[in-house]
Amino acid sequence: MRQSNLLLTTLREVPSEAETNSHQLLLRAGYIRQLAAGVYTYLPLGRRVLRKIEAIVREEMDHSGTQEILMPSMQPAELWKESERYDVYGKELMTFKDRHEREFILGPTHEEVVTTLVRNEISSYRKLPVTVYQIQTKFRDERRPRSGLLRGREFLMKDAYSFDISSEGLDKSYHQMFDAYHRIFKRCGLKFRAVHADSGAIGGEGGSHEFMALADIGEDTIAVCSSCDYAANLEQAEAVRPDKKEMNFEVPAKEKFHTPNLRTIDQLEQELEIQPEQIMKTLIYEGSGQFFAVVVRGDHEVNEIKVSKYIGAMEIGLADYEAVKSLTGVESGFVGPVGLQLTVLVDAAVAEMTEGTTGAGEKDYHFRNVVPGRDFGLEHVGDFRNVAEGESCPHCEDGVLHFHQGIEIGHVFKLGTKYSEKLGASFLDRSGKSQPMIMGCYGIGISRLLSAIVEQNHDDQGTMWPVALAPYQVHILMMSIKDSEQLAVAEELYNQLTKLGFETLLDDRDERAGVKFKDSSLIGIPVTLVVGKEAAQGRVEYLERASAGKGVLEIFEAVSRIQVFFSQLI
């Protein structure tokens, strides 16, 4: 491709709306352009990278025995109401009505559609298992689309769905996808971790894993063991239940004491010199039309995902001021579990405390010497908190948990019969009895991968694409298009490399050398050949974008080195 013909405009200034490195660089290097908030056009360079990502995904999906289909983006709203997800997604659904007033949804995901498809196509165990996938545009009305392609309202996704006759079959399908995802992300040159995760709005009664690209700007926090392979999203990471301390004395009866205007953990710590781990923090929540309390240690934070699962609510939230006052007779900061007439969820770390300080249920007062199990009940004890960095690993004896930020690039779920039962996707087993299909679903954010890869592969000058994904393999910079010798050498190299099968971009623009170098670094093609003053002697400068590899070589040597470079890395 000749750069003079390429639809490409680079930007010298950082766009004001771009906060993350990937967003800035993809805009500046001419890979994408914003049409509206969270909606982007992929220019030729961006589309070439996307196609290479798609090719890797297709190869690994096909290798795992998965079949490609393409389903409609328009989905009847009735399907979502039938699956009971219409209200769960709520305002994130992009809906519209046709001329006959029938409501449709622009699909954010395709569980309902694919379940209906397979329900109508397969009725016997003899045609199972089957796994299908598609690569298609999805739509979600994000409240705050940001960070470029990392959180958009229109995005490209690979979604796959497996249908099995048993849980054992689902396990096999799940692990096939799990392994395929590892191969895909390795081929994309990513540093990533597979972590235990919550299933969120997709649901299902089985487990799930998120694949996280490690990056400082990641919105998700993951806890990783220093010793074993355990890794989990913070919302799913298991907290180790502490051993109850041996007591060689009897704790005195609880005692009320005056704490005027001391509402927060920090205030209690500073004014009364009480350590946060000696305080029992009580928070009032609302979920599924009921109010309840959660008690955690003062140095811990409530994990609302764990709590909502225990309660059986899709969503929970802190009760407002008026509700807390009405339910407890006191404002937040002085609420405690003693005598509280609500269901009280007690975190395991609190249950194992010998004694502690907590709100007294009266304004400006707290209790000291409060003993769990003696002064308030322990009917609902569980893991209701976020783990803290440096805690012991729940899966091995030697490791401790370290925190990293991650960008979610893939998610695999065991759905079980969540959709097949509601939508009637069943099969006749060997005895002729009707059984619901056992499902799994598996997603990869194709367009999100574009940003995640840039976040991990850039410097101050621009992007450094992994070899497998670069829009072009070789970038030829001709310093002066008016120099006949440079023109001849550049054309010779371009034709030779193209014939050898290398994707080559020739910068034949009438621009200053400095502009060409800056654009080349910004675009990030793996190998650059500079055709300059030494062209008359048959020599060119060879540069590798992601390393210090460079030198002045004869033309045949440059071509040979390119062949060796790509043969070693492909």
From TrEMBL:
Keywords: Aminoacyl-tRNA synthetase, ATP-binding, Cytoplasm, Ligase, Nucleotide-binding, Protein biosynthesis
GO molecular function, one term: proline-tRNA ligase activity
Positions of the Aminoacyl-transfer RNA synthetases class-II family profile domain: 38-466
Main location class: cytoplasm
Subcellular location: Cytoplasm
Coiled coil: none
Catalytic activity: tRNA(Pro) + L-proline + ATP = L-prolyl-tRNA(Pro) + AMP + diphosphate
Pfam families: HGTP_anticodon, tRNA-synt_2b, tRNA_edit
This enzyme's EC code(s): 6.1.1.15
NCBIfam families from the UniProt entry: PRK09194.1, proS_fam_II
Function statement: Catalyzes the attachment of proline to tRNA(Pro) in a two-step reaction: proline is first activated by ATP to form Pro-AMP and then transferred to the acceptor end of tRNA(Pro). As ProRS can inadvertently accommodate and process non-cognate amino acids such as alanine and cysteine, to avoid such errors it has two additional distinct editing activities against alanine. One activity is designated as 'pretransfer' editing and involves the tRNA(Pro)-independent hydrolysis of activated Ala-AMP.
The protein's assembly and partners: Homodimer.
Family to which this protein belongs: Belongs to the class-II aminoacyl-tRNA synthetase family. ProS type 1 subfamily.
Domain remark in the UniProt entry: Consists of three domains: the N-terminal catalytic domain, the editing domain and the C-terminal anticodon-binding domain.
HAMAP family in the cross-refs: Pro_tRNA_synth_type1 (MF_01569)
Protein name: Proline--tRNA ligase
